[in-house]
């Protein structure tokens, strides 16, 4: 039974030696080489992450797309969806102020502001309003609020 365990360990050390391109013969040297190899891989990953981070900062600086906005007409109001691939501090406040200016009461809303910005809101027209508004007016007002917000960031 002891021979079987010894063979399995020998195979594992041989696999480790092969995976790390080690030329070491004894077990301790194979483990040392494997540790060095793992450290090199970590450093390589760190460099790549730094390069990706620098590239995304440059790309975000030059290409900052506005959030997507959709507005659907409901029986008594609108379903408004806003989605941005990045978190946008202060954007929710700008959009809610626009709803108020339009006379839309927020009946229900779901908001996520963690990694990205996502808003789904059901806005009903305020009963005290004389003029009726349509989905296109709501969409244009929300897009304008987003443009105004993005200029002040």
* CATH architecture descriptor text of the largest domain: 2-Layer Sandwich
Indicate the percent of residues in helices: 40-55%
The level-1 CATH class of the largest domain: Alpha Beta
Report the β-strand fraction as a percent range. Answer: 15-25%
Mean pLDDT comes to: 82
Low-confidence stretches: none
Main sheet overview: 4 strands, antiparallel
Total helix count? 4
Q: Tally the structural domains.
A: 2
Radius of gyration: 29 Å
CATH H-level superfamily of the largest domain: ACT domain
Shape: elongated
CATH topology of the largest domain: Alpha-Beta Plaits
Spatial ordering of strands, largest sheet: 1-2-4-3
What structural class is derived from the secondary structure elements? alpha+beta
Overview of this structure, please?
The termini are far apart. It is elongated and about 85 Å long. The chain is built from four helices and four strands; from the N terminus they run ααββαββα. It folds into two domains: 2-62; 68-151, Alpha-Beta Plaits (2-Layer Sandwich), CATH 3.30.70.260. By secondary structure, the protein is α+β, with helices and mostly antiparallel strands. A hairpin with a 4-residue loop joins strand 3 (104-112) and strand 4. The mean pLDDT is 82. 16% of the residues are buried. Strands 1-2-4-3 form a four-stranded antiparallel beta sheet, covered by helices on one side.
């Amino acid at each position: 039974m002891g021979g079987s365990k010894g063979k399995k360990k020998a195979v594992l050390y041989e696999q480790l030696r092969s995976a790390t391109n080690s030329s070491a013969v004894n077990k301790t040297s194979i483990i040392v080489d494997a540790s060095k190899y793992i450290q090199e891989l970590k450093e390589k990953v760190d460099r790549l992450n730094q390069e990706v981070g620098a590239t995304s900062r440059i790309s975000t600086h030059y290409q900052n797309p506005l959030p997507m906005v959709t507005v659907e007409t409901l029986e008594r109001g609108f379903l408004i969806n806003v989605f941005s691939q990045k978190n946008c501090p202060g954007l929710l406040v700008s959009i809610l102020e626009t709803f108020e200016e339009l006379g839309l009461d927020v009946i229900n809303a779901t908001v996520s502001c963690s990694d990205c910005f996502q808003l789904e809101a059901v806005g009903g027209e305020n009963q005290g309003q004389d003029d009726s508004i349509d989905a296109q007016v709501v969409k244009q007002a929300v897009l304008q609020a987003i443009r105004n917000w993005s200029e002040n960031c």
